[in-house]
Amino acid sequence: MIEDKISGVVITFFSTASAVGKTLISINMAAELARQGYRVCLADFDLQFGDVANYLQMQGSTTVYNAGQRLAENSDYPLEELASVCTYNDVSFGVLAAPEELSQAYNFTADTAERIVNRLRMHYDYVIIDTTSMFSVLNLTLLDLSTIITFLGVVDFIPTIKNMKIGNETLQSLNYDANKIRLVLNRSDSATQLSIREVEEKTLGSSFYHVLSNDFHAANESVQTGIPLVLRKNNNQLTKDLRQLVALYTNHTYQEDADFDEPTRKSGGWFSKLFS
Description:
By secondary structure, this protein is an alpha/beta fold. Helix content is 40%, strand content 14%.
């Protein structure tokens, strides 16, 4: 019988702007934690347009909608047996993809999401959640359940910064513990005339917890092959930054030890198939 004990850490990736890299970073967070030996499940709660399964080239994966149905039938159902498994060499982590149909997204409730997350926490050390960019009832429920909220932003142009400011102020108004919200900057060295320090001091009123480099080529190649950056043999700065972020979250000292066999490159990614 499964114990009624919730112990897993829930890390939710959230933003108030689209196209800031939530999915890519959440995938790499899950992969790096799994590489370090933790039991991990990545759940895609971007119900209408989630891309976790596409990025990992896992078509036909079990979805959060499927998980919700099973729990409705049996509240004690072991979701770890239902989740699809993403495996690269000896690194594996569970995946619950976004619903396959829009009608399923419309019929998915925040209460269902809460049951799924709480059930996953009983089995996994880490539950990684990808979300859509809005303050919805569903997202607020997920944020409440989270151990850590990774509030992701980019400093590229004024509207994005404005949305990031509003989002940060809204999160602060929810009276979460001060350590719960981690403001992370993605694509830090992208071409822009905006100063990161100026954004921190004059707009956000707080410093970024961690900064991720901009590397479009590496990110695009990861999506094309379906292989997370942290599982590839490379030494680019973005991969180092991603591993450093995981080290911060696990309270470990970051070490460069990329001595592992790189997964076999897949021929043709989902992106090329989409436009072929």
